[in-house]
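Lecture notes, unit on protein representations.

Consider one protein chain, 153 amino acids long.
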Amino acid sequence: MKFRLGLTAVVWAIVVGALVGSDAQPQIPVLSGLVCIVMAGGFIAFDMFRHATPVVWARAPQPYPTTDEDEASMALVRQIQRGSRHSSWALRDTLLSLADERLLDAHGIDRATQPAAAHAVLGPGLLVLVEQQSVRFSKVADLDGVLDQIEAI
């Protein structure tokens, strides 16, 4: 408490000295009141921040995915979920698109223009995917097997 009174007096003396030194002719009682109000507000704010406790969240905040990644991954998740319940041409098209990209990147083969070469590289497991109009995966392991075959191209 003595420190706060002393600090308030020092601030008041500095302000009064600066104003008197500049020939401002300050009103000492008004200036004293203003200095006391400002210092009291500062002390209250200091006490509030000093005694505040940080908030402990139940879990760490998760990073937000970018919009492009989120939309693309959610679309694939929805296709996989639909494909597990019933036939899905969209899931087939997505898997064929992945296979086509792997064929082109790894072997330089375009399935549309070089079907014979593509059939030789794809193998019997992926040929079923190419020949069917839609696919159905009753188990996630079946989908994993197809994805493993696509990665092995």
